[in-house]
Amino acid sequence: xxxxxxxxxxxxxxxxxxxxxxxxxxxxxxxxxxxxxxxxxxxxxxxxxxxxxxxxxxxxxxxxxxxxxxxxxxxxxxxxxxxxxxxxxxxxxxxxxxxxxxxxxxxxxxxxxxxxxxxxxxxxxxxxxxxxxxxxxxxxxxxxxxxxxxxxxxxxxxxxxxxxxxxxxxxxxxxxxxxxxxxxxxxxxxxxxxxxxxxxxxxxxxxxxxxxxxxxxxxxxxxxxxxxxxxxxxxxxxxxxxxxxxxxxxxxxxxxxxxxxxxxxxxxxxxxxxxxxxxxxxxxxxxxxxxxxxxxxxxxxxxxxxxxxxxxxxxxxxxxxxxxxxxxxxxxxxxxxxxxxxxxxxxxxxxxxxxxxxxxxxxxxxxxxxxxxxxxxxxxxxxxxxxxxxxxxxxxxx
Length: 398
Hints:
Blueprint: E1 12-19, H1 24-42, E2 47-55, E3 58-66, H2 73-84, E4 99-105, H3 109-115, E5 131-138, H4 147-164, E6 171-183, E7 189-201, H5 207-222, E8 233-236, H6 246-249, E9 252-253, H7 282-299, E10 305-312, E11 321-325, H8 334-344, H9 349-356, H10 363-369, H11 387-394
Parallel strand pairs: 3-4, 7-8
Antiparallel strand pairs: 1-6, 2-3, 2-9, 5-10, 6-7, 10-11
Helix pairs in contact: 1-2, 1-10, 4-5, 7-9, 7-11
């Protein structure tokens, strides 16, 4: 291992990344979720599976949508692109000049039979697809999120704030961050080992000014001072230049940032993306519910770290399986916590949608700023209102 990668003896490193709303894949996620929001705003029974591709001067919207809503795909796409900040033709991708193509079909009637309670083999709403979903929480941050992804997202959101408020006029929409945390042998965060920031910028700004400014206005503002030391490695725009970015620099696709959208690789992932999917798709709704369950378990003090998995069959309402893993940090056994989950959380798709109030047009902001660990934004899955109940009921197992 190179000298600048060394960690203290017995410790280990874990890295997570984040990307900004101007990243090409995130541009696509936001357009997909903007379509979903508009469909739900007009018709809560909308079935939406919207995929987007973006490249130089082009947005292609495709997928399957069944709705009573009237959707102006041109306006939705252009308004979203404008809100991100692609308003300058010099970027080779902007709200006024990009072409917008829409190729939309209706939802397959075979899928609809499984999802609509009055059409299929079963009497209640079933899962919109088969699959497994995970939720995760831990005590590393106040938001009960893993520290690497939490800090990486904080960096990106600070960059976005500075750009949208015109406090750093040379910032452009596309950016990425990466944070490496050094952990003790027993899995507790010790320090920030490495920070990487790559941000698109105006060609006139000097690299040295970018480095100096972002250290002061971003890193020092969002990373706790106690987590930084003289050995912390910082790389800012390590190639020296990042002018060409966004969909002009790299084609984007919906659903390609699933690890960024969840826990930064800490905890497992079922493989299903979120954006552009209405909550009848358990890829999204059950993943949100698993975060809610895991967060309440940790908040209740039943574990320092918790991962919850659920699985479904298409058309069936009841989950096929449930698994709780506290990685040896549980106050009671994982199987007993599992039973508490079964006793207190209804994991049928229709119950999840009702409990978390998921038929609201709230999804564009999840694609912009993050799905988990974001509080005071109406994200019902971030509530810990079941923690006290779980804590009280766990006493019978002690």
